[in-house]
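Sanity check

After download, print the first record. It should look like this:
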Amino acid sequence: MRICREDMAANLAAFHRIPAIRPELKPASVAVCVMAAGDDTTVLLTRRARGLRSHAGQWALPGGRREKGESIEDAALRELREETGLRASPDAILAVLDDYVTRSGYVMTPVVVWGGAPNGDLRGEVGEVAKVFQIPLGNFDVEPEFLRIPESDAPVIRLPLFDRYLHAPTAAIIYQFCQIALHGATQRVAHFEQPVFAWR
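Expected structure tokens:
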């Protein structure tokens, strides 16, 4: 699947995001970084290192907690640089999506970034990122699966990815991104639940 920056930017420009006003929670930014790779368009995902105390080995968007005084956008660009080695400038930012409140106490704000054509190998901080992947956008533009769990009344969202699943919050964020950027459809995802193993 190949989609140009201009088409995505036009769809994203028409979107009106909903912030989560939760000052008691920790603010975090994640980068939904879109790359042009030959005849394909890809999204950067990392595999978290196995030695991490939380969410070890899971798929994740580049991101993390915002530093004091840091803007949503600046934090996303910093985390993108630290976790993938990709340096993007502020004019590469296409949009900011809805906040997603995690069970672990974060307000996660996704920032859509145009990363352009890949330039060399991408790699993140040793000990935090096991590997950086450029995954074709078509792999994400699929119908999500929804599960019911006894611990919550909300549906748990997941996206099939290769031989595994992508779980919320990453699955929710990427689902919203695909619906808006690719289809011009406003899709809210803050009400979708995370699996229990991601609550801590």
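If your output differs, re-run the checksum step. Summary of this record's structure: The mean pLDDT is 91.
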